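Q: I have two molecules that I believe assemble together. Could you output structure tokens for the complex as a whole instead of separate predictions?
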Amino acid sequence: MKGRKLNYLAVLILVVSAIGWLGSCDKIEQPYTEKIEGPVDTATCPVPDFPTVTVLKKRVLLEDYTGHKCVNCPAAALTAHNLKEIHGDQLVVLAVHAGFFAKPSTSGSYINDYRTEAGTAWDDFFGIGLVGNPNGMVNRTGYSLNHIIPPASWGAKINDALATDPLVDLQMINEYDAAERKLCTHIKTRFISSIDRNLKLIVVLTESGIISAQKNNDAEAGIVPEILDYEHNHMLRAAITSTWGNQVAVKGVVNPESVVKSYKYILPASFNADNCTAIAFVYDDDTEEVLQAVEVPVVE
Amino acid sequence: MQSKECKPKKITALNLKSFIPVLVLVISFTSLSVRAQDFLAGGKVTGNFQLDAQVYKADSAIGAEEVEEKMLMNAFANLLYSNGNFNAGLRFETYLNPMLGFDPRYEGSGVPYWFGSWKNDQFDITVGNFYEQFGSGMVLRSYEERNLGYDNALKGARIKFSPTAGVTLKGLIGTQRFFWDQGPGIVRGLDGEIALNDLLDKAGKCKTRVTVGGSFVSKYQALEEIIVNDTSLLKLPANVAAWSARFNLSRGGFTLDGEFASKMNDPSNMNKFIYKNGHSLLLQASYSQKGFGVIASAKRTDNMSFKSNRNERGSVLDINYLPALTRQHTYSLAAMYPYATQANGEMALQGQVNYKIKKGSLLGGKYGTDIALNYARITSIENELPEGTETIVSGTEGYESSFLTFGDELYFQDFNIEIQHKFGSKFKLLVSYLNLNYNIAVIEGHPEDSIPVKASIFIADMTYKFDQKNALKVELQHLGTKQDEGDWLHFLAEYTIAPKWFFTVSDQYNYGNPDKDRRYHYPTVAAGYTAGSSRISLSYGKQREGILCVGGVCRPVPASNGFAVTITSSF
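A: Yes, here they are, computed for all two components at once.
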């Protein structure tokens, strides 16, 4: 009899806790979103006139996922540099410091944190750090199985990407107010033909000429095992748009001929504006593939 | 020479370090609580092992890519210790490096799975990693499917409690496996099942058996900032609940069961961050008697992807499982176009009839003839967007869908018939015909304007037994389609010398590829040797690119060319 009472008690406890658990959900009421202050402030960033494009060029985005404690990364940066020499403005290089090897140390030569919110989110999403550094993506093609490209294959993938016709064109005009450290960047996305895809635009800021320690095991790239005065180039410093960008085309909706987006960004004091560039790229939100990219210095 | 890639040293040491003290704790605790039982005496250890490895050779024609490591390997071993009411086990896994087609995030070695459990008449307690399913799995199922590289084991604690005969209660809490790590969400679940006959009709007089059950699952994931449509910040739920109710009724050869599941607002990357509630309904009726069986089932799913990370998109961190209502084909050309469950919405119907023509009749012959007829049809759900929108908008209800209306888009249709007959004691024949309609754009994510594949498949499988030991099996398969890669032929011959040896030669020939330069052969030779409970098989050949699905969950299989070995063993 006592055992039975205990059983009922246990059932009662479970039922009560189950009812308690029913509270373990958050019912969200409409509206489901809150408006946040947009990055666009046209009052302080008047939109300029864009010149007519006479020569349509395909430009390719090479993302080099790297870290200051990655010994093989200087060799990869050298590969990226050599490719940039070959392709000129048709190759846009973005060095993303993210993952295990980009973590700062608490003391010593590697205390600087070059990671960014956007870089870490991309690294998590594309799983590059998990595969290892250095690795990269060329126009983010091949997602989700073949998008991670080792440095040895960058050249071939860039050639493949350059061989395709651009579906959109991007133009960028930067206006920089040195007193306020205010950058107004204007990006025109022009659709070469009607595109029935979900397209987004990402704008980021990069900085070159950052002198800081870097581990190294390749004598061709510098002193082994570490280069204390290594020059970091094309380093992703911040996303000017949100991490995954802003919509420029919506599937099922007829595109206008072009879309102009303007963004205001105050450069932190630690950035050297003379060494900064803005990079914009448009990608397909469903396949992740980058369709076009453009890079313009902050101070022209 | 040092590798050209830097790889974080993280996994093995960490897992082992965390594992050993816990096992020691579990063992010490158990040896205290399982009184009067010598922990070591009477204990039994069992285990099994499997290793798959392949040496890859690039073949640009079929799309087999160069593999830097030249050889890749997946292997695992399970060890289980049981002693009376106590069990403890672990699984060691090693992927050096993961074979093509498996997620590269598995790279490394370690012990991702270990547990300790003990039970008495009423309680069954498990700590560590465990697999569990509530009902049909529509609100919770953690399982492992090695062929897919899928493992969403829970890590935490689970208690099963049976207060009285016929009543089973389960409670669990845990995080889910994410390769060598755990997902960010915490899963909490409760399930109760009552077998009414055991509770109310202890004498067993009632011929109708009824079981009812219900589940409640809640997941927690920390809030984060997600911005959609440029300037809108989502108000996210940190806790998302799902529940289900189910029944099972049987009498004689007749069974009827069903489950209805519902999920609260769960904006996620899978559903484009919409807030609509999700639903799923599964109904199944079957009848069987000697030589005859019939099953009819129906399912509706609407926005039922339920993951413990709202940002995930792939086949990882699923809390629930949506049963597939299609027949799983095993013959290689029949399995070329398998269906992948569409968690965002589908209406599915399936019927199957099995009939055995009696022995001694004209068509049945000496051994009888087995006939199986199966039909499955899966379409989209009806889906109405709010006025003024042409696509699903994140941060809204998304769309409306009337519960019982079928959508216009056909995802998958499969009509198939299979006949098996034994001609005397030596020769056995199986013939099968399938007619498939496969929406390649939806199922494989091909471009939206891809034409659905319509395919007819014929299969003949013949086995001739020369004597008790020697047998020859020949398979002939043909797939005819005007879409995708066109027509295929498949031939396989397998000679078995029981119980130790087998030898196989096979070829798949894409003779009808619309591109004449791509009419490739995919030949393979294989041999296997079995000794007791250990087996080794070797194969050399080419593998076509495709997708592999188990229970509606799929992974892509890349083309490959090379030498493969599989070793399995158990004790």
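A: One point stands out. The first strand of chain B starts at residue 44 and ends at 56.
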